[in-house]
Amino acid sequence: MRKRAAKNKEFTIYVIPAWKWKEFIAFELIGGTAFYLLCRKTAHSELFGVAANIAGPQMLKYLMAAYRLDAKNVPQPPPS
């Protein structure tokens, strides 16, 4: 079986920038947990906490994407 696998020498390399996986950890794991705990405690509802766990990180992602696009359009000072 290994001999057949050696014949196919093509493989794909996926490069994931560090900011992508850091963003995933910050928004999905930490942000999702924070939204879940906050909304579960304030509304006293497990279902609302789960919904906030799903919707909160999505809101953060769209907010940061808009901020990132806005930061690119800021005028830069002329080179000296």
Keywords for this entry:
3 helices, mainly alpha, 80 residues, flat
Structure overview:
By secondary structure, the protein is mainly α. The protein has helices spanning 2-7, 18-43, 46-72. It has one domain (16-72). The longest helix has 27 residues, at 46-72. The mean pLDDT is 86.
Summarize the structure.
This protein has 3 helices and no strands. It has 80 residues and is mostly helical.
Q: Order of helices and strands, N to C?
A: HHH
Helicity, as a percent range: over 70%
Sheet with the most strands, sense and barrel status: none
Strand content: under 5%
What is the structural class?
A: mainly alpha
Distance between the termini: 63 Å
What is the CA-based Rg, rounded?
21 Å
Arithmetic mean of pLDDT: 86
Principal-axes geometry comes out as: flat
How many β-strand stretches?
Answer: 0
Total helical elements: 3
Q: Uncertain runs with pLDDT below 50, 5 residues or more?
A: none
- The domain tally reads 1
Secondary-structure blueprint:
Layout: H1 2-7, H2 18-43, H3 46-72
Helix pairs in contact: 2-3
